Amino acid sequence: MSQGDEPSFETGVVKKFLYLNRKAPYGTVYALEVLEMVLISAAFEQDVHLAFVDDGVYQIRKGQDTKSVEMKSFLPTYRALEGYDIEKLYVEKESMEERGLTSGDFVVPVEVIDRAAMGSLIDSMDVVLGG
Amino acid sequence: MSQGDEPSFETGVVKKFLYLNRKAPYGTVYALEVLEMVLISAAFEQDVHLAFVDDGVYQIRKGQDTKSVEMKSFLPTYRALEGYDIEKLYVEKESMEERGLTSGDFVVPVEVIDRAAMGSLIDSMDVVLGG
Amino acid sequence: MKFGILVNEGPFNHQASDSAYKFTEAALAKGYGIYRVFFYYDGVNNANKLSEPPSDDRHIVRRWSELGKKYNLDLVVCVAAALRRGIKDELLAEGFRISGLGQLIEAGIQSDRLVMFGD
Amino acid sequence: MKFGILVNEGPFNHQASDSAYKFTEAALAKGYGIYRVFFYYDGVNNANKLSEPPSDDRHIVRRWSELGKKYNLDLVVCVAAALRRGIKDELLAEGFRISGLGQLIEAGIQSDRLVMFGD
Amino acid sequence: MLHTVNKSPFERNALDACLTHAKKGSAVLLFEDGVYAATKGTAPGNTVAGVAKDLKIFVLGPDLKARGYDESQVVAGVTVVDYGGFVDLVVEHGPVTAWL
Amino acid sequence: MLHTVNKSPFERNALDACLTHAKKGSAVLLFEDGVYAATKGTAPGNTVAGVAKDLKIFVLGPDLKARGYDESQVVAGVTVVDYGGFVDLVVEHGPVTAWL
After folding, report:
1. What is the pLDDT of residues C44-81, one digit of tens each?
2. ipTM over 0.90
3. Which residues of chain B neighbour F41 with C-beta distances below 8 Å?
4. Which of the four CATH numbers 3.10.580.10, 3.40.50.1820, 3.40.630.30, 3.40.1260.10 does domain F2-99 have?
5. What is the pLDDT of residues F14-65, one digit of tens each?
6. How far is D28 from chain F (nearest CA, A)?
7. Claim: this prediction has a pTM higher than 0.90
8. Is D105 in Cβ contact with A1 (below 8 Å)?
């Protein structure tokens, strides 16, 4: 039942995985449990991409303080992504601007791309996950 | 654990209960499980109202045939409501028209009212449920 | 002033149970009564005593049990919704009980306010 | 051509598990392989053997078990998501097993297509 | 009547449904993902500020903070409350309609 | 790429998100509550009919029927498929993006 039971993390195949994040954090758990998928796919040495579209851009907004709602913050996990060589993070410009955010509002380095580029990114992937 | 354990269905108090239905049927279970609440509140002899707003108007659309999705249809329950003296059913005109529906599309007799009247109806209730 | 509380979603996937808990706690702290907390739809999953979240996260099920114990709350799980979803007596955490949907309607009648938390 | 199937929601509240089941059944009927069905988030609740829907409704849990038996499917429940929500070995319906999230990523790698069903 | 909205105005129609049905003088509480509707520099924020003369609009502080916002980023005319304030609103404004 | 949409276009932004990202020539399957987007006499139906020259739009018949619609009530340019057809779409169009 532990992850030690996995037959092996090495498969020899490298696919382009995209985690397409479109939901706001905390109202639902998706933002948190997606991160667990992200970390495991890095352990499998896959080509991991994260995209923040629509309300997904709120997931990486600075200053989240969950103490008074008593929920687990996942910003520390985001900050740790670089340590796992997960560096392909894309924020959709239109989604960001519609929400009054700028590229300085995020806790991690991201590349801001427009909707057309986001569509092309999605189109070039092998596996698209997220929720 | 059965409903026979209820202390009593008679409380002497009659409140205005509104079931505010705003979700489409089958994609989520709310339409089905709301009906169970409706029937029980009638058994408690409460003043029961049903409102169909936004995608809720789809719940009572004629012709639903769930055989090939293998889900339980709840149209028979709707047709049985009159037998429980539940006759205060309101459909919002704007919601109905936006979805290309007319008052002839419904499986049960309803009163079609406009959004302002729906707002007043909601405002006059003691308990608002639904999902 | 007495409140009835309705929880429509299970733990973790939605914030509904968290919000309901914080609201109930705040109402009790202000000295108001809680007539009943009723768990419907996926909300019945809040009563599953096998729930074991990571140690650095809140324990939603146990928190309800403890609040229930402290204030002698009536935590009621809908029998029909629970049967569908596989929540039975042997899974119930401390302080929860299974009963009919009539208990919700009764809470609507007997409470001054019924407050619903869902998706 | 092999498919991986991901189910993100529990039974009844959302149609996700129904759609995933019908898709899987249709793929098998066409002679395609199913590498694995993985249950994540509230999807882990699909494995609860105590589920007892009304007799006139479909039995979502049993249906997965039976399809699994017929086609020797690998029905995997995520251990971390299941622990949070109280789905443990003693609750598992026939044919389901609990394992790590790596099993999902592996399904993404080994399947020709990964199809996700959720809310 | 107290109306509650817990969904993001960008994702769902719950805020619109609430605002088009709530009667003048009613109270509206934005909480959970609904708090984004109270933030400056957004179209929903402008809408909310615009109706704040006819409706009493509140937003739940703990949910704002969880999402990285503080009071200074909330549009004019909206009052920030905590869970105790949420309870007070239910007491003062009568029955609750949750726009789920 | 096959895109899937399972949400009502009246309730959520999933259809819009899908249509503004899908590349020309891609396939889009509407299923579950997403099937309402294919119905005649509605604004989303008009939108879907309008993009059907650039995208291949499909709708799941069993979900239509469950909701009381038949093929004659589906806008022009949209093809009705069953679960087997859904499987074929996944086979033919490659990776799937589910706009949840």
Report:
1. 999 999 999 999 999 999 999 999 999 999 999 999 99
2. yes
3. 99-100
4. 3.40.1260.10
5. 999 999 999 999 999 999 999 999 999 999 999 999 999 999 999 999 999 9
6. 10
7. yes
8. no
- Asked if residue A3 has pLDDT above 50, the reply is no
pLDDT tens digits, C13-39: 999 999 999 999 999 999 999 999 999
Catalytic residue among D60, D73, D75, D78: D78
The size of chain F, in residues, is: 100
C78 is an active site residue: yes
Å between D10 CA and nearest CA of chain B: 11
Q: Which of A2, A20, A29, A33 to mutate to test the interface with D (most CBs of D within 10 A)?
A: A33
The fold for domain B15-130 equals Hypothetical Protein Ychn; Chain: A, (3.40.1260)
The DSSP bridge pattern shows strands A88-92 and A47-52 to be: parallel
Q: How many domains does chain D have?
A: 1
Burial B39-77 (b: 16+ CB within 10 A, else e): bbbbebebebbbbbbbbbbbbbbeebbbebbbbbbbbeb
Annotated catalytic residue, options C76, C78, C82, C98: C78
* Helix (H), strand (E), coil (C) string for chain D: CEEEEEECCCCCCECHHHHHHHHHHHHHHCCCEEEEEEECHHHHHHHECCCCCCCCCCCHHHHHHHHHHHHCCCEEEEHHHHHHHCCCHHHECCCEEEECCHHHHHHHHHCCEEEEECC
State the nearest Cα–Cα gap between C90 and chain E, in angstroms.
32
